[in-house]
Amino acid sequence: MADTHVPVRGEDEPEQLREQFRQLLRYRWVIGTGVGVGLLAGAWLGITGADSYAATTDIVLRAPTSDPFAPTLATDKAVNMGSERQTALSRKVAEGAAKRLGMGADEIDRLQHGLQVTNPPQTLVLHFTYSASDPKEAARRANALTQSYIDLRKQQWESVRGSMLKSLQGQLDPVAKQNDELSQRLKQLPNGSAADSAYAVQANLLNRITDLRGKITSLKALDMTPANVIRNATVPTSSDGPGLPLSLGLGGLVGVGLGLLGAWVRLVFDPAPRSAGDVVRAVRGPVLGALPRGSAGTLVVGRTDSRAAEEYRSIAFRLAYDERFADRRRLLVVAPRGSIESSVAVAVNLAASFAETGKNVLLVEADLRTPSLSERLDVSAASRPRWSRTGEHAEGEWPGRGQLVVDAGESGAFGLVPGERVRNVPRVLTSAATTRLIAEADDPNATVVVVAPPVLAYADALALVDRVDGVLIVCDPRTVHRADLVRIRELIVGAGGTVLGAVTHTEPRQGRAATAPRRDKRRRGAGSPAARPTPPSPRPEPEQPLDGDGSTTITLRAVHSGDR
């Protein structure tokens, strides 16, 4: 078999991106929630930022030195900016600023909370920023915290210098005392080798004394200023926040991003088919048609201006040219689970579409649990075609007591075998009478369309697969899981059938019954003509409402157990 796989070309990528974006728009409520959260956050930021004022100061750090103009001075190596920033944010600095401001000990934490200290890259500058609701208070506290940091660092440096001076002085005093004692001894020693040795020792002591005194002098000469203020805090004239309009704009942009991210995550983990391609991969068959929204509950074939009618005609032609269906002309229409309404509507409209092309069509209602199709269509048992008659069958065996004819308006007519309640559904579906009924499609000009309950709800459809062969799956991608479609395909293939494809539809959230007009139909007995009620006025007959082009539309209505 030739490889029919066509690689995705580069020019198809924009179409894939458009498809993915359309899939994201399925979750508008997620995107809307993200936008709402972003706008709320932006509004909160704009409102709270309007009452916040920020005052700033800048200082340049320096290391203690005796010659600030020395070219070999490496202050950036002597000062660790990360450590200095943490020191500026420490509680010790806040305590010193609180004393300057006359604040109590219980206000230190609040004072410390409003301070931010940053270090611009590749600089020795510390940037102090203090935020407060009062602009004057913000400037006053920023200056107080900056000066408290400078005082603390100066105190620390002087403490270090004092410790070093004390240590050096402690080393100098014993050496000086020893030198004084040696000088007294030299006055008493005569000239000779003993005196020469004492003079050598004294020279060493003098060198030691000179070195220690030089170090002490250098330490005392150091400039211990830890930093220079290059900008004092002034009273800010405007609030620190970005403003309400800008905050709302930024919040909206962030909300859109969050919404799209949430929609993407929801899309990834959504078990429902995201596109027609997902349905194709799940059932391993083509999507033969996508019905317009809200059109799955109405017999629309015969309406020349109806999009749904043209879609059904397209599906019928695609099936007619499918060799797997054209050979035997048997079609089983099923839904995954839930209601049978959509599959019944598709089966009826496809039967009308085949009848419109001149085929002798027999619609078989294989729903033997809640049959109601004959009560919802314009049916009659008069002038029944020869090809729709079956042979005799045993008492109690379905297909019922007779076949009916459905008037599909301009599309023509087709036969209907209505379902009826039985005790043993599997036995009736596998009976010889059912086999003879489905064999009506052996006529070269005949087509049999069978509608059965949902596959995942009952095994009725699987009991018919080996005789019907071709299966058409009707599903709403929003309400079915990909795993369900894969499971249906496996069951059908395992029962000996073939999935011809799928038909997708989208119904409003309030339910399918609201999309199609309802009308009551009286079930007619065998041989009775189709009787239509006479209207009391020359208005159109209520049982067959007229469309804009004068054609009639036969509707399906939901029939509950209490209606029968």
TrEMBL record:
Region (Disordered): 503-564
Domain of life where this protein originates: Bacteria
UniProt keyword annotation of Disulfide bond present: no
Membrane-traversing stretches: 27-47
Keyword annotations: Membrane, Transmembrane, Transmembrane helix
InterPro entries reported in the protein's UniProt record: Bact_polysacc_biosynth/exp, P-loop_NTPase
Protein name: Lipopolysaccharide biosynthesis protein
